[in-house]
Amino acid sequence: MNILVTGFNGKVGFEVAQKLKEKAIPIKCAVRNVEKAKLDYGDAYEFVRLDFSDSSTFDTALNQIDKIFLIYPPGDKIEFERFLHQAKQKGIKHIVYLSVKDVQFLPFIHHFKNEKLLKRLGVPYTFIRAGYFMQNLNDFLGDEIKERQRIFIPAGKGKTSFVDTRDLAEVAMIALQDTENHQNNKYVITGDEALDFYRVADIMTEVLHVNIEYTNPSVKEFKGFMLEKGVKEEFINVVIGIHFPTKLGLAKGITYDYEKITNKKPTEIKTYIKDYKGNWM
Ligand SMILES: NC(=O)c1ccc[n+]([C@@H]2O[C@H](COP(=O)([O-])OP(=O)(O)OC[C@H]3O[C@@H](n4cnc5c(N)ncnc54)[C@H](OP(=O)(O)O)[C@@H]3O)[C@@H](O)[C@H]2O)c1
Description:
43% of the residues lie in helices and 17% in strands. The chain is α/β, with parallel strands linked by helices. It has a domain at 3-133 and 162-192 and 252-266: NAD(P)-binding Rossmann-like Domain (Rossmann fold, 3-Layer(aba) Sandwich), CATH 3.40.50. Strand 1 (3-5), helix 1 (13-22) and strand 2 form a beta-alpha-beta unit. Helix 9 (197-208) crosses helix 13 and helix 10 (219-229) runs antiparallel to helix 11 (233-247). The model has no long low-confidence stretch (mean pLDDT 96). NADP nicotinamide-adenine-dinucleotide phosphate (NAP) binds at residues 7-13, 31-32, 50-53, 71-75, 98, 100, 130, 132-133, 136. This is SDR family oxidoreductase.
């Protein structure tokens, strides 16, 4: 069994690679820049080049692969359908696809179309419909927390169902190992508590011993500040879009799929903040 882990450099793919490696399951880690990955990780992983916007990379990336942990990356000209058809031709036996919670109500996002594509493809799949990543706090929210001690995001007063990407990776690993029992299933993976960003700021303050504030900017204020900072408009719009359902109060649903699959409680946000403390100090 050889598993292709896409998005290795990302918040979920890296954790999936960790979990599979711990179990000594053979993996190939897909990155766009193999040389850089080798510099960063040495021989710890086997890397293969995969760029979803460059179909000439697909064949080699899919060589001797049985299963895929699949993400849909940000960016333009992503040839996802072509990649999926090539994967089928190469005899891929199972795809675990990282999707998003409430995708069924969001026909305008890529994941809606991608889930349909995957179903039509006829390769057994497992969909992991993920809640809002805790790791966003040390990713695109990280700079402002570190530099200005504020959570700066237009998410209003709404609650969102935070999930630790390490928990998502655990579900992915289980589904990849035991494909028969998880074939053509959809799991909605969240933590066990929906929180608003005021509460998250309080917990961060308590754990980090630094006063962290949630400033709840308007979309206009957020966009203006980020543009001035040099962030690309396309990315800013994606980030605003991610937080829109929260602002509308639509992101607070909690599920218990994680517990059912793993027999464990999902990671609490306090634990996540303790574990990642060094990122904001
Ligand atoms: N953030 C959330 O709260 C949330 C919640 C639910 C679902 N999601 C979904 O999670 C997915 C993103 O996963 P993530 O957050 O783990 O990723 P991420 O941290 O945003 O990292 C992006 C990853 O995509 C890869 N990538 C970018 N462009 C690529 C391309 N053209 N071809 C191949 N790989 C490419 C990067 O690889 P290299 O660096 O190697 O180039 C990197 O590994 C998205 O589909 C998003 O909708 C996010």
